[in-house]
Amino acid sequence: MFGFKTWRRKRWAGQSFPESWQAVLLRNVPYVSHLPAELQEKLQGLVQVFLHEKHFEGCAGLEMTDEIRVTIAAQASILLLGIEDLTYFYNDLRSVLVYPEPYVVKIKNRHSSFFVQEGFQQRRGEAWERGHVVLAWDEVRKGASDIHDGENLVFHEFAHQLDYEYGATDQIEQDHDESHYLSWARVVGGEYQKFLHAIEQNQQTLIDAYGATSPAEFFAVITEAFFEKPVELRHKHPELYRQLQEFYRQDPASYLSA
């Protein structure tokens, strides 16, 4: 099964990349122009795989277009540029739902066994463990337009998708003796605790304060910083940068100048 899937993905990745899609990349995803030539070529193949495999659906009246699909697929595929083969490619992801702008969802907050508070919340995007990523198109474009601000909605939500599939934050949430930590759990968990302390002390941080919400959100925002502020992250958090470099098998600081 996996052999056939890998063969099929390689075939898709080797197809010629439409000129109209390349125009979308140049117009909407300026990050791509900073990649080395070999990574730009690899990205084109990954985008082909993504668009063949993943279902896109427009919500709230949004008409799905190649521009939307290619813009999102390219940013999601940037996270996978370090993969050596195509056995894995967001295997649990089934669909990408796209709203024209931030959308409102109904939420329930349980404060005790007897008290549940209901309300509404506006969201720009989210990733579900059941294999769906939801995005607001205007926020996708905004996040892609500035490649140095450390805020990219697609990077953020697809980092969550990787977390669901790899369990990237599971270990840092566990309370084990340090001697039993894997390097990833020790370093990222330690950085998370230092980050929480900095937020509590109202200190300015390179990493988005939203990362203090949970270890999962911390992983998502450090992914944004890793790809959009790599030089600064490597300077201020060298061990954390090295762990992300190993996780993503990429070195954005080598090709994305500050």
Number of strands: 6
Broad structural category = alpha/beta
Q: Which strand-content bin applies to the residues?
A: 5-15%
Sheet with the most strands, sense and barrel status = 4 strands, mixed
Task: List low-pLDDT spans.
Answer: none
Q: What is the radius of gyration?
A: 19 Å
Query: How many helix segments?
Result: 10
> On the 0-100 scale, what is the average pLDDT?
91
CATH topology of the domain at 167-258: Collagenase (Catalytic Domain)
Helix content: 40-55%
SSE succession:
HHHEHEEEEEHHHHHH
* Overall geometry: globular
- Biggest sheet: strand arrangement: 1-2-6-5
- Cα end-to-end separation: 43 Å
CATH architecture of the domain at 167-258: 3-Layer(aba) Sandwich
What are the SSEs and their pairings?
Blueprint: H1 2-13, H2 19-28, H3 37-53, E1 55-58, H4 66-78, E2 95-99, E3 103-110, E4 116-123, E5 125-128, E6 132-136, H5 137-145, H6 153-166, H7 183-200, H8 215-228, H9 230-236, H10 238-248
Parallel strand pairs: 1-2, 2-6
Antiparallel strand pairs: 3-4, 5-6
Pfam families: Peptidase_M90
Protein name: Zinc-dependent peptidase
GO cellular component, one term: cytosol
